[in-house]
Every structure is written in structure tokens, then in C-alpha cells.
Amino acid sequence: MPPILRLLRPLQWVKSAFVAAPLFFNAPLWSAQTLALVAWGMAAFCLMASAVYVLNDLMDREADREHAVKRLRPLASGEVSPSLAYVLILVLLVIALEIATWLGGLFPVFLLSYGAIQLLYCFWLKNHALIDVMTIAIGFVLRVLAGAALIDVTPTSWIIIMTMLLALFQGLAKRRDDLVHAMEVSHRRSLVGYNKPFLDVAISVILGGLLVAYLIFTTDAAVIERFGTENLFYTAPLVILGILRYLQITLVEEKSGSPTEVVLRDKFMIFSILGWVVSFFVVPHV
């Protein structure tokens, strides 16, 4: 990809799919209008996230030059100048805020909250163990809340809980990968507060909570009434398969450094996710 496009990290835009989660779980609300609103909301979060990525790379470019892989980043390698990066940040923010203002409602509040938290993460929170991964998880929750605001629904507590736990799991798996591949503390100061035994236990605890939350969600009376079926729990095996595969990638293959690449490139994960999506709409009609 061209340097400027690489600087925006387009592969990370897949995270904005969480904006669509409330609509996904409310199929009766599907329409051309709601799909368009969610699509614009996802675009705004993509632009805001890219602005934060550019700022983060701008701040870390000196340290990145000493890293075996990160030295190839556009700012660290000199392919993109700092002045151009500042202009790019401004353009991304202006467009994201214009979209948010046009969408209206509470959406701008959630987008701005996301941006503010990410700024705190870049300048301070990323240096503190546990707080760093919790901040990432809150960012995912804000995406879900923003998506719910777009279609004027109240997200269930289960969606919020599962989003939080899933994001925590991925964040902890990434920190484990940092330790496995001996990332220096100078590049991620929060690693001082982690070691492999702690992360292995933490990942197990979070995954246990995630699976229990999903099983309770599928058997919750309100959920059964909304979907008109008691059979949603039959989708659980695909969820379990997907989680176990990610755990296998983390603990056995030790390749969990990029959650986005795991989701987009691992065939087993793709099968599990697509299978779950299909089964979620097939099961209520069986």
C-alpha cells in the first residue's frame, strides 16, 4: 500500500464493525435507512481511529526507528513527513466530526468520548499495565453505544459485557505476544506489569466469563422473546470453537500480536465467525 494509506492502518478499520452490533442483534430494525446510518457511523469511527493511529506513530517515530519491525512504519522510515502527518490528522478529524454532527443525537458524544480516551491512551494510559487493556476495551464498548444511538435502541447489558470481555481477551493476548517476542519495555512501558503466568491466568478468567455471559445471553428470557426462539444456545459451539482457536493461536502458535490479522486471515477463525453469523439467523427459523 502507499505510505499514507499504510499510515492510516486500514486493516484496523474492521474494529468499527462493533458499531453495527446493536443493529445485528435487532434484525426487525433492518432497513435501507438504518443500514446507511450505521455505515456512516462506522466511517466516522474509522476516520477517528486513523487520526489516533497517525498521532501515535508521530509520537513514537523516534523509538520505532530502533525496533526491528516498527522502523518500517511510514513516519519512522521517513516515507511520510511529520508536517504531512499533522495535516492528515486535522483532515481526518474534521471529516469525522462533520459526519458525526450530521448524524446527530448522542452519536457525536460517543465519538468524541472515544477520541478523548484514545488521546489519553496515547499520552499516558498505554504506559500502565491493566489500565492499557481496559482502555482498549472501553473503546470497543463506546463503538457499540454509538451504534445503538444511531438506531435509537438501548443495548442490552449482555452485549456490553460480552464486548468488554472479548476486547479484554484480545488485549491481553496481544500483551502476551509482546512478551513472547521480547518487545523492549522502551517500546511498551506497560509490559513491566505483565508476565506470561499472570497473562495466562488472566486470559483464562476472562474467557470463562465470556463463555458464561454468552450462554446466559442465549437463554435469557428477554432475548428468547425478542428472537422468538429458545434454540439460540445451539449457536454456542461455533462461539466456543472460535474462542478456542484464538486461544490456540495465542498459547500454542504464539501469533496473537495482531488481533485484526488473526480475524481476517486465519481460515479457521473466518469459518467460525461466518458460521456463527449464519447460524444466528437460521436457528430462530428451525
Coarse structural class: mainly alpha
Q: Which series of helices and strands comes N to C?
A: HHHHHHHHHHHHH
Q: Separation of termini?
A: 45 Å
Mean pLDDT: 90
Q: What do you see in this structure?
A:
This protein has 286 residues and is mainly α. The chain is 71% helix and 0% strand. Helix 8 packs antiparallel against helix 9 (196-219). 35% of the residues are buried. The mean pLDDT is 90.
Please render the helix and strand layout as text:
Blueprint (H helix, E strand, L loop, with lengths): L2 H6 L12 H4 L7 H33 L9 H4 L4 H22 L3 H17 L7 H20 L6 H24 L15 H24 L1 H7 L8 H18 L5 H7 L1 H16 L4
Helix pairs in contact: 3-5, 3-6, 3-7, 5-6, 6-7, 7-8, 8-9, 9-11, 11-13
